[in-house]
Amino acid sequence: MKLAILAYGNNTLKVDCDTVESNSDDLSKLIDNMWETMEHAYGCGLAAPQIGETKQLFVVDSIVMYENADEDERKANFVEGDTGMRETFINARIIGKSDETWDEIEGCLSIPDIFKRVTRPWSITIEYLDRDFQPHTKTFHGTTARIIQHEYDHTRGVLFIDRLSSLTRKLIGTKLNKIMNGKVFTDYKMKQ
After folding, report:
1. How would residue 39 be classed by pLDDT, with cut points 50, 70 and 90?
2. With 32 labelled, which of 59, 88, 107, 174 sits at a CA distance of 20 to 30 A?
3. Which of 71, 80, 87, 151 is catalytic?
4. Beta strand pairing call for 86-97 and 57-61
5. Strand partners, 139
6. 44-53 confidence digits (pLDDT tens)
7. Binding site annotation covers 136?
8. CATH number where 102 lies
9. In degrees, to the nearest 5, what angle opens at C-alpha 148 toward C-alphas 145 and 153?
10. Where are the alpha helices (DSSP H) in 16-126?
11. 104-139 burial by CB neighbour count: b if 16+ within 10 A, else e?
């Protein structure tokens, strides 16, 4: 089922989310709905707080980014052998970050029509449970690491615009107000 995505200004987007306590049919249905919602909105990631659930849960699809990139972008943004991945992250915890950073443009389904450069670590190591509650510790690089960090931030109440300079935030203030007031069109259902 496609769910409404919360718009910038909704207080749920600023909540430090709770851990997911158990695997259940309700959780499995929520994960399925998140995938459907993200795909319908042509996103590459979606976190539970974006659909009103204050849970440490997010989904990531960097395959779509790899497939839509040209050869130069693939070489610049993916390590050799990485063609992207699709994964569900539950109770994730970033346990390592590279010293190497990179700037790249980011956007957000909760903040439509705003795209800005954000500096993030090139690679991260993360512990998480998959949708079957199986534990993993993996290292991701480039675009995949960026999407994971963006969605992970959502589960901690941090938006990508929180990582922008105060001047840049001031410059996009009018657009942010339009989003908060429901005056931005999207192809997907949004909720204030």
Report:
1. very high
2. 107
3. 151
4. antiparallel
5. 125
6. 999 999 999 9
7. no
8. 3.90.45.10
9. 125
10. 25-40, 63-67, 71-77
11. eebbbbbbbebebebebbbbbebebbebeeeeeeee
Q: What is the DSSP letter of 50?
A: G
Q: Are strands 190-191 and 5-6 parallel, antiparallel or unpaired?
A: parallel
The pTM score is: 0.97
* Secondary structure of residue 24 in the 3-state scheme: coil
Round to whole Å and give the CA distance between 192 and 179.
9
| Cross-strand pairs, 9 | none
Question: What is the structure's pLDDT at 151?
Answer: 98
Q: Is 108 annotated as a binding residue?
A: yes
Domain total for the chain? 1
40 is in an annotated binding site: no
Q: What is the C-alpha separation between 55 and 154, in angstroms, rounded?
A: 10
Give the whole-angstrom CA distance, residue 42 versus residue 99: 31
Q: Are 126 and 178 in contact (CB under 8 A)?
A: no
Whether the CB-CB separation of 147 and 132 falls below 8 Å is answered with no
3-class SS of residue 126: strand
The pLDDT tens digits for 81-110 are: 999 999 999 999 999 999 999 999 999 999
Q: Model confidence over 118-160: pLDDT tens digits?
A: 999 999 999 999 999 999 999 999 999 999 999 999 999 999 9
For this structure, is 104 an active site residue? no
Q: Which residue range is the domain that position 174 belongs to?
A: 5-191
Query: 20 with 91: CB under 8 angstroms?
Result: yes
